[in-house]
Amino acid sequence: MSNPYDSPDVSNVQTYQTSTRRMKIKKLDPLSLGKMLGVMYAIIGLLIGGIFALMALVGAGANGGGDAVMGGAIAGIGSIFIFPILYGVMGFFGGLISALIYNVVSGFAGGVEMDIEV
Q1: 30-62 and 67-109 helices, crossing angle to 10°
Q2: Does residue 60 sit within a domain?
Q3: Does residue 6 lie in a domain region?
Q4: Which residues cross the membrane (predicted)?
Q5: In a domain, 52, yes or no
Q6: Residue 40 burial (CB < 10 Å; 0-12/13-18/19+)?
């Protein structure tokens, strides 16, 4: 039985060959990019909404109570729900428009070249 902590024998080591290929992105699917950016921006909106909610609650509590605390709490909690929706919608339409513009520009500019290792 061999010791698993010994250095491996040459016969046991598997070698993987990697090759680099140059590829060019000529077209983007607008709906695919829109969905991807919509989800990414919704996550960012959730983070920003949470920060905004925390600041609104702290600011409302610093005023000494009363109606300001309730207003700050409503605005803070509302931002956790509103910001991701707004950011997600803006991200979707931004991705859609960006892909359409990219497809037009790549028609005469040639697209983006990338080196991909496989």
Answers
A1: 160
A2: yes
A3: no
A4: 39-61
A5: yes
A6: middle
* Contacts for 68 with CB less than 8 Å, ≥ 6 apart: 60
- 6-65 tens-digit pLDDT: 666 656 556 667 788 889 889 999 999 999 999 999 999 999 999 988 888 777 767 666
In 1-118, alpha helices (H): 30-62, 67-109
Residue where the block lists tokens 């700050």 = 72
Domain count, the chain: 1
Structural contact between residues 118 and 24, judged by C-beta atoms closer than 8 angstroms = no
Cα dihedral 72, 75, 78, 79 in deg (nearest 10) = -110
- Find how far residue 61's CA is from the centre of its chain: 33
pTM of the model: 0.72
Whether the Cβ atoms of residue 91 and residue 37 lie closer than 8 Å to each other: yes
Contact by Cβ (8 Å): 19, 118? yes
Identity of the residue numbered 93: F
